């Protein structure tokens, strides 16, 4: 159990809407070990967003325990959770959420600006490293509005990995992208996984499950399915199988 | 947290919205510039009045008959006859803080030379009057102690009188002019002084020995006033008290009786006149202050809009580890940068426009350091004050809602 990155036990989360109590999570338990690539799937209303918020330390459960990298999150205050997010978690959002009119490099540097341990020089080095890892080394000074959706998402991924998080949380990370770009992003995630990163991919799209090592399905606040995927499909092969078209700028080299 | 990083973040955010930042600043710029230039105009006119008053004489003390309460009540003729030559003698003898003093009798009417005549005022005084009122004799000379003793019919005239009477450019010295059918020989001409702040021509007058005017022209035993100068500006107040005490004694006034004379100093006169300009300064400062306030509300408005507009950015910053107070400081620093930059530009513009008013239009303008410091501080505080509320609002956003805000 020592290399459990995430361990949740009997997690419940209730919301009070008006006078009614909505049970978004009704006792969810699982552990995620280092090096897993997990999808959490479910339709809207299944509780996956609530679970993601809790896993991302943006929200706290009503009851149940959550250990992130061995740290009990449940009783942490707002500021401590902010620090925890800064050090241990990398977020990738559906709508990229890059700062407007800001260069790729500055966007990637952002999490390190909130970490006083990094000097300006280290910050730049780390950011360049992360941008190189997502294949955008030649785009560092492009502003977010000068890039395509796929490129923006790769900047967002670089921003998520720049602080060397223990877990990468992707929230519908391919939701706004076309099929080809989606496969490119998935290929990138698979490569990051192959390099040893732990990734949780929250989605409602069942197609993504085949590219991951484990699938958790949520429904009405319960886990209905949790199984290991023995034959992980390669997103790169799926990409190559797509009919050829103009190669998008910014290639991914393996 | 490293505040240097927060400042860097705030500067980056501002740099991305230069035009909006500039518009916000405009309110502060106009506010600060107008406070500085309005106060400079107010202060300038105040100073120019003070200057003109000090040109009138040095440490002047004016003693006049009557109790000096004007308005409504007409004072009886007898109350205007209370000052006597003995009062003047007592003051010169007993008041140590007095440097110079002169009795004064005055009259006005037509003066005649040949075919020309002009209305003017005639002052009967002694030689000290020149020093008290800062006059000097340009041509010829002042009358002497001997002329006073003998009530000589000599006079010293101002430049305007010369211009009015000697239209052909004759030399006035030695000529005889007539005032109320008494002939006066001109023995001197005063150096021109020009108009004073109340619009009086200070050169339109004739000076003659007080004995001559008192005895030969007016045939009176009293005098119209005493003019004196204190040995220093600080001594003025004390000198006034001594003079009052001596006069009360001379006039045999019991304690509690209303004085039948009044004593004014130059400072009193100048502060009386500055009341108007002070009021004007306050009014101008109020107007300018309101524009500064409007500038502050502008900051709040823009900051408020920008918090809403940047909700997702705030949500993102929070999700990657920014704490509430980081967001608070970022927005506060943005507000401070806007107001300080606006303040600096405003100071430059305010001083610049004051100089333009001074040298372009020629108004008396005086920029005071305190008004610059004050308006700059006020604008910074306004910026922080009005930036605080939106910043507070931003820092309290829930990251979950903020990140998905549409």
Question: Can you walk me through this structure?
Answer:
- Chain A has 254 residues and is α/β, with parallel strands linked by helices.
- Helix content of chain A is 31%, strand content 27%.
- Chain A is built from 7 helices and 10 strands.
- In chain A, strands 6-7-8-3-9-10 form a 6-stranded mixed β-sheet.
- In chain A, β1 and β2 form a beta hairpin.
- The longest helix of chain A is centred in the C-terminal third of the chain and has 16 residues.
- The mean pLDDT of chain A is 89.
- Helices cover 56% and strands 17% of the residues of chain B.
- Chain B is α+β, with helices and mostly antiparallel strands and 406 residues long.
- Chain B contains 13 helices and 10 strands.
- Chain B has 2 domains: 181 residues, no CATH class; 136 residues, no CATH class.
- The radius of gyration of chain B is 34 Å and the shape is elongated.
- Chain B starts with a helix and ends with a helix.
- Chains A and B meet through α2 and α3 of A and α1, α10, α11 and α13 of B.
Helix content of chain B: 55-70%
Roughly what is the average pLDDT of chain A, rounded to an integer? 89
Protein chain pair with the most extensive contact, residues per chain: A-B, 27 and 24 residues
SS summary, helix count of chain A: 7
Q: Helix- and strand-based class of chain B?
A: alpha+beta
Span from first to last CA of chain A? Answer: 32 Å
SS strand fraction of chain B: 15-25%
What is the overall silhouette of chain B?
Answer: elongated
Supply Rg of chain B: 34 Å
| Total number of domains of chain B | 2
Question: How many beta-strand segments of chain B?
Answer: 10
Element string of chain B (H = helix, E = strand): HHEHEEHEHEHEEEHEHEHHHHH
Protein structure class of chain A:
alpha/beta
Task: Report the order of strands and helices of chain A.
Answer: EEEHEEHEHHHEHEEEH
Oligomer: heterodimer
Largest sheet of chain B: 6 strands, mixed, barrel
Q: Kindly state the number of beta strands of chain A.
A: 10
Uncertain stretches of chain A: none
């Amino acid at each position: 159990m020592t290399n459990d990155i995430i361990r949740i036990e009997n997690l419940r989360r209730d919301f009070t809407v008006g006078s009614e109590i909505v049970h978004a999570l009704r006792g969810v338990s699982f552990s995620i070990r280092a090096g897993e690539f997990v999808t959490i799937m479910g339709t809207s209303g299944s509780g996956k967003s609530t679970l993601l918020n809790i896993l991302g330390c943006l929200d706290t459960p009503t009851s149940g325990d959550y250990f992130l990298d061995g740290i009990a999150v449940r009783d942490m205050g707002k500021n401590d959770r902010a620090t925890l997010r800064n050090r241990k978690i990398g977020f990738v959002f559906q709508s990229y959420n890059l700062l407007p009119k800001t260069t790729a490099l500055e966007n990637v540097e952002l999490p390190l600006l909130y970490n006083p341990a990094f000097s300006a020089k280290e910050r730049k080095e780390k950011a360049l490293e992360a941008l190189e890892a997502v294949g955008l080394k030649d785009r560092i000074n492009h502003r977010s509005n000068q890039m395509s959706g796929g490129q923006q998402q790769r900047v967002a991924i670089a921003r998520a990995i720049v602080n060397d998080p223990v877990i990468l949380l992707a929230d519908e990370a391919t939701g706004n992208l076309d099929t080809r770009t989606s496969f490119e992003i998935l290929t990138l995630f698979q490569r990051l996984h192959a390099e040893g990163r732990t990734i949780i991919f929250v989605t409602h799209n069942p197609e993504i499950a085949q590219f991951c090592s484990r699938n958790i399905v949520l429904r009405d606040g319960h886990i209905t399915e949790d199984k290991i995927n023995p034959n992980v499909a390669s997103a790169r092969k799926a990409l190559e199988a797509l009919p050829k078209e103009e190669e998008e700028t910014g290639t991914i080299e393996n | 947290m490293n505040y240097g990083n927060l400042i860097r973040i705030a500067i980056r955010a501002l740099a991305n919205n230069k035009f909006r930042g500039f518009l916000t600043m405009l309110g502060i710029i106009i506010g600060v510039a107008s406070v500085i230039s309005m106060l400079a105009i107010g202060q300038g006119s105040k100073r120019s009045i003070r200057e003109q008053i000090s040109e009138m004489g040095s440490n002047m003390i004016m003693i006049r008959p009557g109790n000096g309460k004007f308005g409504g009540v007409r004072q009886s003729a007898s109350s205007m006859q209370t000052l006597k030559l003995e009062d003047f003698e007592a003051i010169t003898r007993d008041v140590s803080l007095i440097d110079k003093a002169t009795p004064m009798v005055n009259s006005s009417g037509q003066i005649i030379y040949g075919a020309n005549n002009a209305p003017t005022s005639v002052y009967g005084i002694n030689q000290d009057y020149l020093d008290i009122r800062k006059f000097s004799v340009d041509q010829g000379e002042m009358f002497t102690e001997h002329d006073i003793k003998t009530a000589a019919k000599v006079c010293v005239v101002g430049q305007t009188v010369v211009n009015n009477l000697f239209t052909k450019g004759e030399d006035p010295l030695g000529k005889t002019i007539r005032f109320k059918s008494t002939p006066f020989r001109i023995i001197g001409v005063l150096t021109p002084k020009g108009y004073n702040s109340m619009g009086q021509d200070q050169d339109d007058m004739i000076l003659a020995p007080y004995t001559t005017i008192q005895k030969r022209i007016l045939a009176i035993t009293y005098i119209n006033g005493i003019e004196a100068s204190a040995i220093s500006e600080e001594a003025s107040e004390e000198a006034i008290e001594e003079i009052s005490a001596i006069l009360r004694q001379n006039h045999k006034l019991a304690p509690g009786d209303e004085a039948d004379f009044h004593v004014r100093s130059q400072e009193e006169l100048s502060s009386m006149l500055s009341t108007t300009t002070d009021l004007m300064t306050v009014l101008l400062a109020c107007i300018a202050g309101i524009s500064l306030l409007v500038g502050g509300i502008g900051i709040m408005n823009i900051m408020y809009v920008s918090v809403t507009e940047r909700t997702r950015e705030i949500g993102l910053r929070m999700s990657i580890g920014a704490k509430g107070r980081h967001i608070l400081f970022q927005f506060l620093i943005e507000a401070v940068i806007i107001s300080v930059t606006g303040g600096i530009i405003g100071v430059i513009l305010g001083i610049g426009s004051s100089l333009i008013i001074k040298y372009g239009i020629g108004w008396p303008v005086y920029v005071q350091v305190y008004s610059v410091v004050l308006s700059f501080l006020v604008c910074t505080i306004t910026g922080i004050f009005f930036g605080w509320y939106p910043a507070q609002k931003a820092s309290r956003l829930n990251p979950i809602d903020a990140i998905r805000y549409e």
